[in-house]
Amino acid sequence: MSKDPGELFPKDSKKSYGLMELVKGTSPMVDKGPEDTVTSWPHLLILEVLASLGTMVLLLFMSVAWNAPLREFANPDVTENPSKAAWYFLNLQDLLLHMNPALAGVIIPTIVIVILMAIPYIDRSKADISIWFASQKGKAIATFAAVYTTIWLVALVLFDEYIQVKSFISEPEIIPAWIIPIIVISGLTGLLIMIIRRRWNPTKREMMVGLFSAFVTTYVVLLIVTLFFRGLGLHLVWPWNLPPGALPF
Amino acid sequence: MMPDINAILKIITRSQIWRSVFRQGYPNTDENRSKTIVNSWFLHIHPVKVRKHTLKVSYTWGMGFITFFLFMVLVVTGIYLMFFYAPSIERAYTDIQALETSITFGMLMRNMHRWAAHLMVISVFLHLCRVFFTGGYKRPREFNWVIGVILWVLTLVLSYTGYLLPWDQLAYWAVTVGTNIAGVTPLIGDQVRLILLGAMEAGPDALVRFYALHIALLPGVMTVLIGIHFWRIRKDGGLSNPDEITEDQTEGAA
Ligand code: HEM
């Protein structure tokens, strides 16, 4: 960390004098160049106090405005309809409607977690560290990936509601439950990669920004679909037509 | 006659008792500011100095800190709820009803616990997104990102195990659906389901297991991992910042 002071204030060999300056400060600066740091007290701590207070105020308002739900006593003989998981798992629950449960509920989540963990070992450049979306190009790619993903997801959800893969091929079970979902997911991901590569000629990091944006979009869009747009029997409805008790909170 | 406040303050802050607790003066010099941080058990996790860039709200959104704050709120309100709740089929549901109707601050504490859990699920995901989109996972922070991914999953699982505890219809069916999904895991599905539920169906054993996970095992693991997460931020030289940008000759090498 500590830099050679001679390097910070290079001496000009042609000059017999050095440049001095008197500055205001709270401590003597010996052998130190100008630094882009401030003391944690108070600069960081004041932000932490403000964030705590803001969060606490929001939380108190919510807790006064809405009560936590408590439905009837658990009854194994009465199924809730629609029966929804906690809201933060509804994206997974939506996947379950479209493919084999082991694929949707176990295999895909596991793959997602493993890929997320692998990210730092795949993208190892440090050329754009701390820059939001890596670059202007990265921002455009992220936006495109989000729009692309939203359009496809909405189309697929509508397709599976009103037409269904099973109306074309239902036998053997493995085709609609495994093969077609896998082909659709990898095909659409591949197409996204191809379009990004053709249009933007991105770095590895910019490509990953695009793919991560597609992941976040999928996560959020499917969550919203099942939370607000699925009623009795988990069929699609408008949010204002949801049956009572369809929101799991 | 009005007593002189400053004189009284001086007597207090110069007393041996005061000085045995606070070993430095008011933090208005750099020396005392440093000491305030390093002499305090609560604050010593902070570095004495931080880069201005990492203080920008537009850089971190403060989401990591807010997640941590919500976790602490959950611990405090959760302990309050534990005083009035027993994880048995006979008592769980009526205990929650009692919390809502007859226990002082019961309703408020239950609401805060529930909504803080929801907010934490949101804030931890926003934190994950900000770290990804700013490239905060890059060398040397690779492993802290991996710990982060585990923290994200833990946050979800903690929320989910708490969901069962009121033993109402919402809880029962969410857990039945969830453990059925775990049950279709290739090869080990049935065993996983049995371990989670302690029986073939969600019942008294499942309630006890989810309770133990929710109040002891998972929060314990979470606390340790958050500790490691913060410790590594320090060891990795604080937060990612533009000074670390280097051109890419290292790609593939190093
Ligand atoms: C219980 C959950 C978590 C807590 C309490 C937490 C807390 C924090 C805090 C306070 C910081 C300091 C900077 C900031 O606020 O952004 C931070 C940084 C960081 N977090 Fe987390 N975090 C959690 C989960 C995660 C997750 C889910 C990830 C990613 C998968 C992650 C990865 C990181 C990384 C890589 C840094 C360093 C970022 C940088 O240097 O720019 N953390 N965390």
Structure, explained:
The complex is a heterodimer of chains A (249) and B (254). Chain A contains 7 helices and 1 strand, in the order H-E-H-H-H-H-H-H. With 249 residues, chain A is an all-alpha fold. Chain A has 2 domains: 28 residues; 155 residues, no CATH class. Chain A is flat and about 90 Å long. The mean pLDDT of chain A is 88. Chain B has 254 residues and is mainly alpha-helical. Helix content of chain B is 65%, strand content 1%. In chain B, helix 5 packs antiparallel against helix 7 and helix 6 packs across helix 7. Chain B is flat, with a radius of gyration of 24 Å. The interface between A and B is large, with 80 and 96 residues. Bound molecules: protoporphyrin IX containing FE (HEM). Protoporphyrin IX containing FE binds next to helix 5, helix 7, helix 8 and helix 11 of chain B.
Oligomer: heterodimer
Helix residue percentage of chain A: 55-70%
CATH C-level class of chain B: Mainly Alpha
Total number of distinct structural domains of chain A: 2
Spans of chain B of 5+ residues with little confidence (pLDDT < 50)?
250-254
In total, the number of strands of chain A is 1
- What is the H/E order of chain B? HHHEHHHHHHHH
Highlighted features:
A: 249 residues, mainly alpha, flat, B: 254 residues, Cytochrome Bc1 Complex, Chain C, 11 helices, disordered C terminus, binds protoporphyrin IX containing FE
